[in-house]
Every structure is written in C-alpha cells, then in structure tokens.
Queue: 2 jobs
Job 1
Amino acid sequence: MSLLHLAWCYFRSRALLAMSALAIALGVAVLFAVLAVVNGFLAQVESTIRDFSGDAVVAAIPERLAPEAELQDYLDALEAVEGLESQQPRLNYYGLIGRRGARAIDDPRTTDLSGLLLVGLDRLPEGMKRLQADPQLEAVAFGPEEVPPGAILVGKVLAAKAGVGVGDSLMVISFKRGSQGYPVPVQTSFRVEAVFTTGRYDHDIDRAIVRREDLALMIGDGLGFNEIGLRGRPGLAPEQLADRAEAALLAAGLKQKGWPMLVSTWRAQGGNFLRAVENQKGILSAVFFCIVLVAAYQLVATLALTVTEKRRDIGVLGALGAAPGRIVTFFVSLGLVIAAVGSALGLLIGTWLTANLEWVQDRIFGERIFNAETYIFDHVPVAVDWSSVLILLGATLGAALVFSFLPAWLAARLNIVDALRR
Amino acid sequence: MSDSAAAPAVLQALDLHKTYFMGGAELRVLRGASMELRAGEVAALRGASGSGKSTLLHLLGLLDRLDEGEVAFNGRPTRRLSQSARARLRASTIGFVFQQFQLLPELSALENVLVPRRLACGMSWFRRRGLERANARALLGTVGLSDRLGHRPGQLSGGEQQRVAIARALISRPAALLADEPTGSLDRKAGAEVLELLLELAQENHTAVLLTTHDPEIAARCSRVLHLEEGRVRQE
Ligand SMILES: Nc1ncnc2c1ncn2[C@@H]1O[C@H](COP(=O)(O)OP(=O)(O)O)[C@@H](O)[C@H]1O
Ligand SMILES: [Mg+2]
C-alpha cells in the first residue's frame, strides 16, 4: 500500500528534509532531558519522603487520642491491619547543638548553637547511607539496624557544621516541661555513631537520629512517640493503607470520634512542596513541547518546497494511477518519516544528554547549574518516565501529521499534465 | 495485425473539444476529434508540431479534463467518473510512455518499474511483493536491462531510460499503451531500437498502441496512421 520507500528515498537525498528532522530532534532531545530531570527530582523528593515517613503516617496528636492508651495499644491495633508490612514509632523533637570547641554549651543563648530536628527511632529508616571515614569512598546503605543506646547519627552537612566526626561526643540541648509548666533546658551527651546522608541537602543539614527511648527520657515525654510510620505491602495504595489504619484505630477505640483523620499518606506529608514540583513538571512539559511544535511546524514550509521541487514526480505518480488520496498519503508519510527520524534521533541525543549531564554542565556552562544548596540533592537526579516519553512521541507525530496535511493537499490538487510539463 | 478492424474497440473518443485560455486569447486545440483504437492494433497519430497530438493523448489517457465529448474504455464512458475512479482506470488499463521518459530519479530501474504495481495492488502489495519483483526483473530482462536493475535513471543512457519506461508501462499488462513521441528524445539508432522493442512487446502482450510522431518512417511501421489536423482526426 505504501510508497514509504519512495518517501524514504526523498528523505535520504534531500539535505533540507534532514535539517527538518534535526530541528525536531533537538526539540525532542531538550524536552526529553528536561522531563527526565524534573521527573528525577520529583521521584527523588517522593522517595526521600517515603523512605522517611513510610507509606502512611499515624499522627499522635494528644487530644485526638484515647486518654489512657499507650504506644503498645496503637502498635497492637495497627498490627492487624491487612496489607501492613511494618510499622515504626517515631518521636520528633527540636534540639540544639554547639559547634565543637564552642565556649558555652551551657548557655543556650550563644550564637554558636544550631537547631536541629531530633528524630527518635528504634530502627534506622530506609534510604539513608553511612558516610565512610575515607571521604574518597562512596557512602553505603545501612543494614536493618537498631539505633544503639546513647548514640547519635548526624546528617553530613550538620556534622561538618558542628565539626564532629564518628566517635566524638556531642552535647545536645533541648527542653522539657518543668514542674510549673515552663520549659526547662536539658542537655545530654551522645556519642556520634555515624554520619549519614539522605542524598537530600535540606535533610542532611538539620537531622540527627537518636534512640527513641533516649529522647523520650531526655525530654520527659511519657507517651514516647508522636507518630507511627506505616509501610504497606508492595502494590497496596498508600490511601488504602491509611484508610484501613484509620478504621482499625477507630475500632480499637484509640481515636476520639468526631476528630478529623489521624492517618495521612506520605503524599499528604509531602504537602505543597510536592504539589509545586508536580505543577512545575506540567508547566515545563507544556513550554518545552512548544519548542517541538515549532520544530514540527517548519514541516509545512519544508514539505511545500518539496512539493514544488517534485512537481514532475507527482505528475508521474498521477499518470501511473495514484489517486489524489494516495498523493496526500504519500506526503503525509514523508512528513511522518521526517518526524519519526527526528524523534528517534532526539531520543538518542536526549538519552545521551541525561546520561552525561554533569559533563555537559561542565563543558557547556563551565559550572554546575544545579548546585546542592539550591537544588536540595547533591547530584542531578534523572528518571525517565517512559509513559510520558510515549506521549511526547505521539504528540510529535500527531503534530507532524497535522502540519503535513496542507502541503500534501496542495500536491494532490496539482493538474497531472501541468505537473509533467514541469 | 491485418484482422484488427474486426477486433473490439479498446478505446473510443467521440467529438472531443479542448480549448486553452492564455491571458484572454483562446486556443481551440481540439474541435471535435473522434477516433478509436482496437485491441492489439498499433496506430500512429501524426500531425504538425503544436497541432494538439499531446493534448489528445492526455485526454485519451484521462490525465486531463475535456471540455466536451466522451472517452470510453472497453465501451464504458469515463466522463462522469470521479478522480479516484479515473486513477484506478489508469492503473489497470492504460500504460504511458513519454518523450521525456519521466522516471522517478530517486528510484532504481527496478523500483521505477514496480511503482505502477505498488499503486495498483493496495494492501495486497505486501503479500505479492516477491512475485511482483520477479515479474519486473523478468520484464527488465526482456528489454535488455538485466544488468542495470539497480541503476538510477541518471546513471542510464536515454535509450536505456526509455526502455525502463516501456517496461513500467507494460508491467500491469494494460489494454492500451499511449506513447507520446517515444523516440523523440533519442538519436536515430537508439530510437529505432526502442521502437522495435515497444512494438514487439506490445504485440506479445496483445496491447493496443497509439503513438504520436511526426516521423513518416515511424508511422510506416504502424498498422494504421491517423492525422490530426485543425483539431480533428482524419484517417489515412
Ligand atoms: N496547458 C496549456 N496551456 C495553454 N496552451 C497549451 C497548453 N498545452 C498545450 N497548449 C498549446 O496547445 C497547442 C497543442 O499543444 P500539444 O498538444 O502539445 O501539441 P503537439 O503535441 O502536437 O506538439 C500548442 O500550441 C500548445 O502551445
Ligand atoms: Mg507533443
């Protein structure tokens, strides 16, 4: 049926058509790379949130809980939730640490102190890596370890700021509720067990992990937790896990009736930031797809020129029995060949770009445009979402189809005898 | 060929009119031309340059719209046919050979010969591809080009190009072959060879031929000679 072979021959022998394909290729490549980076960023944000919080989080807001209940009651009630893989109680609290060699750790007003989030855990969360003593070596993932008593694990940026390393002792200041209801400063000395990285700058700068029991003791928290992270079996939607957990707590009488949800998903935990990134992804896709559209739009001019150049061929095809519809199909196929070659080339270039992003940044821009402080992650995360690549390809070919139609129609309208005469 | 008067008419033209308008001036090229072409016969259409031979051939081949009159293939009128029905008729019934060869420059000799088959076969092309290729190869062998299958038109001499064009015109075994000064761009020797080949193959395929020429020698090789004068066809 097709004269695809002839279209391919035209394509091969015309530099103009190759240029057209190249324009589409550049558009597709840039869009591919941008999507991969935004997507990688989104995936990384999601996975750090998810690694830390779990799929769903039970928030222990005191007035919504049953007055007499203890942690174990919650754990027992949740244990029965269908599809639950693991649960981890957490106690989050704010603290201060002083720089090493700082004059007065016992005066909380000193400017040498920096704030941090103390995360009290029984076991280390997923997605964290232990920094090696030798800075040349890559960080390695922690095993499923319990947090040892008296130990503190410090984020790598925080460790650098405080000037502490593994084996050092670190004085942490926090506050407990005093007998008159006023906060009273407390301080505890921890041994630095490890320096970790989450891959995310904003976590590495303000997080330290201690044993939940130690923290509860230090700040005098009777309940010993303020949230429970839940992880569901693979394939179970976080929303479903959250709903089941909520129902289980209600059934066990652990949640006060009439209060809003106690259990939220990791997505809700990510909050506006996550949604902002998702929005950004949509906007960037639309903007960069316009580049592809413009690249595809020049097909109108390129093909119109080809129609003029190939008038005689069109006449010959007509004389040999090609109906006008066939001529339209031919030129639309030519447009599609150009777009297909362009897209394929664009995917190759885009894949290369995303694989060599660091190199490209160094060579072309002379500096890292994505630096850790502004970009959160210490490397540029890249993730190719093949379903959106497929949509991109479909949209590119669709645009080529639309833009090829006008020149194709012009070709089909040519009078055969006139065309043969050149 | 002598019994062709009794054969049925493949192609009939009745009272054809065609007028060109050129910036106000009108040029009445055909003014009631009528003729017929019988199965298997070879007819020559003679006439002075500019007398309208090509115009008539284009109308007979359904390449152009006529102002008045009727062209019928195997007794079936074509005037009211749609564009695509006319295209289908061209693909199935009519072969063309042009003075300027009119091969597609990007395609090889073999591919050029296959173009009418691609156009005629539709989806069944993919099933028939091997068979069609073998046929085209054989036909190119018959016209003496078996060692030029992969050559592009630009790599062939004029005589060779016209032989490719003849193979292309005959590949679908059309009932009628319309040849517009088929030797007009060739030197005497090449022209004579091409003409010989064309007549031979047409006879083998039982294809009726109408060729235009202003060369009396060529006309003498044909079974019947028609003259186009003042927009009408006169039998010799
Ligand atoms: N498309 C056209 N527009 C105007 N005049 C034309 C056109 N085609 C042919 N003619 C004129 O019609 C006359 C017949 O042309 P043609 O059929 O090519 O003659 P022949 O083939 O006998 O030499 C010529 O005078 C030519 O200039
Ligand atoms: Mg002529």
Job 2
Amino acid sequence: MLRLDGVSKTYGSTRAVDRLELEVRPGEVLGLLGPNGAGKTTTIRMAVGLLRPDEGRVTVRTRAGDASSPDAHQARRALGVAPQALALYEELTARENLRLFGALYGVAARQLAGRIDELLEHVGLADRASARVSTFSGGMKRRLNLAAAIVHDPEIVLLDEPTAGVDPQSRHSLLEMVAQLRAKGCAVIYTTHYMEEAQKVCDRVAIMDHGRLLALDTVDALIESHGGESIVVAGTADGEERLSTDQPLRQIEALLSKGDLRSLRIDRPDLETVFLNLTGRRLRD
Amino acid sequence: MRAIWALALKDIRLLLRDKAGFFFTFCFPLVYALLFGAMFAGMFGGSASRAIKLALADLDQSDASRRLVAAFEDNPAVEVVKAESGDHAERLVKDKSAAAGVVIPSGYSQASERPFSGSGAPLRLVIDPSRAAERGMIEGLLMQTAYAQLQQSFTNPESLQRLVQESLGEVRALRHTTPQTWERYLPLEQMLAAVEVFAASGMLQPEGASSEGEDAPGSGQDGWQPVRVTVESVAQGASSRPRSSWDITFPQGILWALMSCSFGFALSLVIERKAGTLTRLQMASAPKWQILAGKGLGCFLVNAAVLALLLAIGLGLGVRPDSMLWVVVAAACCVVAFVGIMMLLAVSGKTEASVNGIGWSTMLVMAMIGGGMMPTFFMPGWMQQAAVVSPIYWGIRAMEGAIWRGFSPVDMAVPCMVLLGIGIIGFLLGSRVFDWRGMEG
Ligand SMILES: Nc1ncnc2c1ncn2[C@@H]1O[C@H](COP(=O)(O)OP(=O)(O)O)[C@@H](O)[C@H]1O
Ligand SMILES: [Mg+2]
C-alpha cells in the first residue's frame, strides 16, 4: 500500500504538486489523469522517494507489514517504477538490461534468468531478447521499460505514461499487462493524459490539474457526479435534435411515443466531460 | 558487491560497444605511441646515443693530458662532456648527465712520460656502483686509450728513444730492490733494451712500429699498466636516459589511453544523468555511492586493461623496464589517479556538451604541460616547473621512473603518492559535488 499525505512540491514559482492526498491499495489500479504539466511525474518521483516533498509525507506499507518512507531499503524493493522518460541502456540488449536491473534489485542469480525469460515472453520480446534496445520501436521500448520495472516482482508498481508514443498493438498489450498486475494483487499507479485508457484500465481515477487533485473516485462515480447530463440525439424528418437529460431512458420513451424517429443515439458523458466540467478546459489543448 | 559488479560490467559493455569510445581508448593511444615512437626513433637510443657519456676533467692541462682527452673525443664509443673539476665530474655522474667521469689529476704528464716506472699515470674514474657493465667497459676504454697514447710515443723515434732510455734507466734502478721485483721486470728490461737498439738504428717506420708498440706494454706483465686507475663510486640519482623512443612514447601513450578512457566514463555519467538511467538505477534500489563505485570500478578495470595491453605491446617492441614490480606499482597508481580524474571530469560541466568542451580541453592542456605530447625534458625550465600541476606529469614520471629512469623506491614514492592522492581526493570530491538531478524534469 502506498499513501501520500498532503504532499507538495514547488519548483521556483511553479507549484508542481499541491497538498496531494492519495492512497493505492493492493489489487487496485489507480489512475492519475491530467494534462501535461499537471504534476503527475513529480507525484511519481515523490512517491518512490526520488524527490523529497516540500511538505507532507509518503508512506509505503509492504505485505510484510512494515511501514516506512519510500527511500528505505525494504520499501525500494517493494516498489517498481517505469519512468516516463525511457530509462534503458540503448546499447545493451533487452536481456542485459533486465539482468542489470534484476541484479540491482537483488533478485537471486538462480531465479533471475528464469524470471527474465518469463518476462520477455510476457511482453512479447522473447525473439528480440538478444537485440540491442537501440534497434527497438517505441512500443517495444515501452514494453521493455515495463518489464524492467517489474523484474523483481514488486508489490507496488508505478507506471508513468506507459503508453506514450506507442502503436495500438503495444498499447493493447501494455493495458493487458496492467490488468494482470492487478489480478496478481499488485497496487498500481498509472498516470496518463489519455482519458480512454484511464476509463478502460483504472479502478479509481484521480483527476489532476496544476498540481491539485480535483476529484478522485471510480470512473462511474466521477461521471455521475461531474459528467453532467447525457445527451439524447434523435434524428427526425426535421433533422437532428439534441436533448440534454439526466434520465435518458425517459427521454427515449417520450421520443418513441411521438414516432417519426429515423435514428437514435445517446452521448454519455465521459472523463473528458468530467475534466471539462471541472476545469473549463479540454484534457488535450 | 554484486550490484557494483553488475554496474561495472554494464559500463565495460557499453564502452566496448561504443565505436568512438573504443577507438579513443584502445586504438588512438596505441597509434600515438607507435607513430611518435617511430618518428622519434633516431632521437633516443639508436647508434648515436649508445656512445657512453664520459665526464672528463683535465686538471693537468698538459700536452699529455690533452692528448688523452683528444683520444677520448676521437673515440666513437665515447661522448665527452667537459667537466671543470673533479667535483663537477662527480656531479655530472650523480645526476646521470654522464655514465662515468674521468679525472686527469695534475701530475699526469710527468707520470705518463715514465710509463714503466712507478705504477703508471694516475687517473680517477668516477662511476655509479650499480652500473657494473659500464664500469668494465670504461675501464677497458681507459686502458685502450692509454695504450694507444703509448703507441703514439713509440711511433715518434725521438720521443721513443728518450722514453726508452729513461725507462730503461728506471727499470735498471730496480735491480737494487728485492730479487722478486727485479725478476718481474727483467723481461721488460730485456725488451726495452732491444727496442733501444732498434730505435737507435733509425729504421723505425711509423706503420711498422705500431704493432711493436702494442706488443710492448701488453705482453703479459701483470705487474704493470700504463695508467693507474683509482675508482670512486658515486651513486646515481634520477634522470637516466631512455633506451629507445618507445621508452618515451609508451608512457605517453598509456597516459593518453587513461585520459580517453576516464573521459569516456565521465561523459557516460553525464549522459546517463540526462537519459534518466542514473535515476532509474537509484530507483532500482542502488544507493548513490554504489552507482559511483560501479562507475569507478568499471573505469578502473578498463584503464587497467588498456594499460596492460599497451605495456604488453611496448614490451614486444623492446621496452625493457628497469623493474617490472615498479611498473606494476606505477601502473596501479596511474589507474587509481584516473578514476579520481574521471569523477572530476564528470563534474566539470553540467551537460554532455560542456563536459566535452571543458573537460577535454582541460585534459589537453594538462597533457601538453605534463609532457603527454612533448616530453618535459624538451621544455624550457619554467615549463618543466609548471608541469608539476599536471596529473599527466606525475603519471608519466611514475611510468618512466619504473621503465628507464632507474628510480629508487624513495624516488618512486613521490609520483606514486601524488597519483594515489589525486585518485582518492578526486573521487571523493567529485562524488560530493556531482549533481544527481536529471535534466528530464
Ligand atoms: N525539475 C524541474 N524543475 C523545474 N520545474 C519542473 C521540474 N519538473 C517539473 N517541473 C514543473 O512542474 C510542473 C509539473 O511537471 P510534471 O510533474 O512533469 O507534470 P506531468 O508529468 O503531469 O506532465 C510543470 O509545470 C513542470 O514544468
Ligand atoms: Mg509526466
């Protein structure tokens, strides 16, 4: 379990993270959704102990039960991070990268080789295991980046924009892997500025902007409370009619009873709408 | 320890896979050593310098002594360095400006005019006791020169006649000493008597006389020598001569290799910081000291490998170190020093470009003043003094001390301690100053 209590970080005059409260529990994927510059990466860096918060506290509680700050030894071993900036050795092979990080995390040499094979298989890089990372596509690098983050089988996994700049297939396989981590009981923090991903993979989503947490709940609950009304779009002989409503089924019944309906669509609010309603801006300006 | 090994191994792999890094670390220094070694081949070693440097102090200033000096000067195996006094000759030997010194004391001419009387003309030979081979050679040379002088006297009928008569008189005077002594000189007396007759006959030809002249004093009387050499020992200090140009260019090449290699490692630290891999290593639960220790170990191992490779090639080309043990010690000190320098280079700039610019240009200046390009002994005096600020100077000095300068352990201790100091202080200082913050925000 990872917990942030009123954590803040200021760079010069930029309040990168402002009194953030977060908690991610085992078996849960917590999304950090926000536009570029919202403070997601800064949050991750503080969460893993790379950056000391100006105020507030980060606590890591391992399955073994001990709670500590993230830079404590046992906490480091419990955390796995895939940084946003691809931090891989380009001139080493996929296997050599994993072997290095495995050794640093203290994975026993006997288990490491097997674990690496399993991971490479898992991320679909088994056939490129001995190729240098510099020859990989963006998607392959992202998959290896994730594999390197979990080579030591961590309890808490932090993925900072794991799908940035990847092809649809790699994106699909990355999301699949996140689901598997959840199934294994890992606590996962997943940052993204793609609301479709957050909607698809996250149990709860924290919406961030300008370093502040605007809302935190399940996707449905967020839409319920901040999405506003659904829009029923009805096509009639007179053209298209858009009807805003919080009870779309009622609305449709009424339309049907009038007859003369050529097409019917419900535009449900999504996280994009939630963000728009919360900030007055779109997620991707 | 496993983590540090893993980190070092990673760095070695990366260096071997980086074509430019590999070239500058392994190929360039070798090319440098070979190219400049070949270029300067005539300058050190070679036929000219195989001549023995002899400090000659002529205190007699007579015709006879000048003839002896001229004889040495004419000898291609000897390079004469004029000395003002006996002390001066000793100093020249001490600081290895000369392999040996010969002092012609006043009174030499009188003695040399009566070669068969007394125990020969006195000469003082000043020599380093550790140079046994040269000592034998120089003593032989002195005898040879003295005999040649004697021979010249024989080729001049007048002087020969005078010489023989005087000598005969002196030898005959020995008749009144002990019978044993006289017995030893009897053959000489008989021979001189024969020569006297021969010289008086006026048949003497310069060419014909030469063989007789050689025979006369060399005919096996062990009681007699034309000159009497007293040997004095002077232990030599530093600054011996390189035996070949490889002796100069291999230490230089080694220092270039260490520079390139350390530079590559320093740059890799800065690049890794920018790329975020340093951050990731930290996240992979490697403490900072471990990351730097891994870098240091990688740098140490590659430096040691390059050094061993260059030394092996140098040995193959005929570099003959005075002491292999000291070569190993000096090499280890150099390698340690450059691990420290690596850390200092890594903090010489914030970005790859600035480390490239600042670090490398500092290194070049250090190499230049430290004798990495032109040996310091070609430099004007003030520059030689300034060279001590350069780690390259100390590196070259340690290597040269072990290879050809014939340093004593005390002589070696100075550059070795300086190098170890640079290594340790440089590493600690660099580690403290190193800015871990990545550039990726
Ligand atoms: N090292 C840094 N120095 C100065 N400002 C920074 C630094 N890192 C991040 N920031 C600023 O903090 C804010 C949040 O950045 P970041 O956490 O990277 O956002 P996100 O990951 O959500 O895109 C931005 O305004 C960014 O410019
Ligand atoms: Mg970010």
